[in-house]
Amino acid sequence: MTFEEAKQRPDYRFRLTGIQLLIRDIREEHLEIDLDNGPLIGEAVLEIGYVDIEVNISVNGMFSETPTYKPIIEYFMCVKTEDDWESIGYLGIEADVDWWSNRWKEELEKDMFLVLDTFVRLGMLNYNRPN
Questions:
Q1: What is the pLDDT of residues 14-64, one digit of tens each?
Q2: Residues 51, 127 contacting (CB under 8 angstroms)
Q3: Phi, psi of 87 (to 5 degrees)
Q4: Using CA atoms, how far apart are residues 25 and 15, in angstroms rounded to an integer?
């Protein structure tokens, strides 16, 4: 499926759920977050049918005694089963976005789709039915 085809689906849903408030800190590569609470979860979400990909943000050295506060923007994936959403976990991929661009939102949306679609194909997952 192409990005354009995906956006035409009635079950395609992309939303920013907090990352837009952090863009200045991301650009400055210094994000002050409460390290005791763990990473910021679901700061952007792309859901297509029975799969989704989310942006989670932590900082470099988050659990060390001397964190750098440099943001790490990683992808996390979930699938919908017959009963509920289940975590697949971190994909080990950071967002490939020019955060200084005026089009960072569009870049993020497309990057999230490309990563999600790759994992759907490689993992033999399905957009159209429970996984």
A1: 999 999 999 999 999 999 887 677 899 999 999 999 999 999 999 887 777
A2: yes
A3: -80, 135
A4: 20
